[in-house]
Amino acid sequence: MTASDSPRLIVMEHPLVAHKLSILRDRNTANHHFRQTLHELSWLLAHPTFAALGVRDVDIETPLEPMTAQAMPTPYPCLVSILRAGNGLIDGFMQVCPEASVGHLGMYRDHDTMVPVSYYTSLPTDIVDRQVILGDPMLATGGSAIMAATKLREMGVSDIVFSCLVAAPEGVAAFHDAHPDIPIITAALDRELNDKAYILPGLGDAGDRIYGTG
Ligand code: PRP
Ligand code: URA
């Protein structure tokens, strides 16, 4: 199966998403404009991402009559950011779902091997009881997302959704091989990786563009 055939891959198609992605892809977009646009885009990406989570029935009363409504299961979801760039997505998700708890997994790609190195872990103690949204703008080789999802799985987390802005077919295939039951929600599926494992056409180094460190 190719990445674009996968039933576990949702690629957003929306004019506003396409418009904001074009701003992010443009090399001339200034860092502050990149950050702001990423923040706006994260609100749009929250829509299909949270749609992949389960809901529960709750009995409530409107001012007119009782009804069975739907609500997020409790404890509320945990939003896990793959540092650094993941914060650019998760900050927006926190605003649309302020009840969520937030975790951080620090990892960076070794510049020679492209293999992720884990340097920090901070997760809620009851994370096994929560649905988890794992967020990182970029899915390139898939190494970082796979390492993060594997860490969550080893802790016993069962419900995970991976959410990103730009995915490479190579990363989608690797992630699905490693975690076939975890859906990937992305704003774009790009063409391929270059020989340095950057996504083409991509948007460059997401962390550097958010924080102005490139
Ligand atoms: C980037 C990006 C992902 C990773 C994707 O992070 O934010 O975490 O690369 O690449 P992969 O799919 O090949 O693992 P980076 O390692 O540059 O760290 P940063 O967020 O601190 O800049
Ligand atoms: N990480 C990024 O930030 N960008 C890429 O294109 C690949 C990995």
Brief rundown of the structure:
The protein is 33% helix and 29% strand. By secondary structure, it is an alpha/beta fold. Strands 1, 4, 5, 6, 7, 8, 9 and 10 form an 8-stranded mixed beta sheet that branches.
What can you tell me about this protein's structure?
This protein is of the alpha/beta class. The protein has a single domain (2-53, 75-211), classed as Rossmann fold, CATH 3.40.50.2020. 33% of the residues lie in helices and 29% in strands. The chain contains six helices and twelve strands. It has helices at 15-25, 31-51, 86-96, 143-154, 169-178, 206-211, and strands at 9-11, 56-61, 66-71, 78-83, 101-109, 116-122, 132-135, 138-139, 160-167, 184-189, 192-193, 199-200. The strands form three sheets. Strands 1, 4, 5, 6, 7, 8, 9 and 10 form an eight-stranded mixed beta sheet that branches. A two-stranded antiparallel sheet has the order 2-3. Strands 11-12 form a two-stranded antiparallel sheet. A hairpin with a 5-residue loop joins strand 11 (192-193) and strand 12. Helix 1 (15-25) runs antiparallel to helix 2 and helix 2 crosses helix 3. It is globular and about 60 Å long. Residues 1-6 have low confidence and may be disordered. Bound molecules: 1-O-pyrophosphono-5-O-phosphono-alpha-D-ribofuranose (PRP) and uracil (URA).
